[in-house]
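Appendix B, record 7
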Amino acid sequence: MSEHRIEEALSTLEDVLVRERELLLSGRARETTNLIGEKIAALEVFDAVVVNGAENTLRDGQRRRVDAVVGLAKENATHFTAVRNGLQNAISRIESMTDGAYVGAYGANGGQTAFPKATGGYVKKV
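Structure tokens (predicted):
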């Protein structure tokens, strides 16, 4: 693999991962989807470097950059995990709110109807 192609792949991947990290840290995780195409293209070249054994021919500077790229990718993965956990916690809180909520309907015994058990089959008062 040519020296230029390796340098280009490393630069592109570094740029994408840095932009991805900035989006994650600023709370704009949804916008990271705009980077997918660019990230995949750079990763394909990066993988070719590693899979084809070109990592044995990397210079020390390139090897350090590869290590930095791997570190950035791991950091971003941690941020994505945090985003996922935050969303799951928010969903759980919303779901638990409805468990304790009641609709404005009462049963024959005068007890309130819990929201999760409401089916919408109520007759309108005339």
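Remarks on this record: The mean pLDDT is 80. The radius of gyration is 26 Å.
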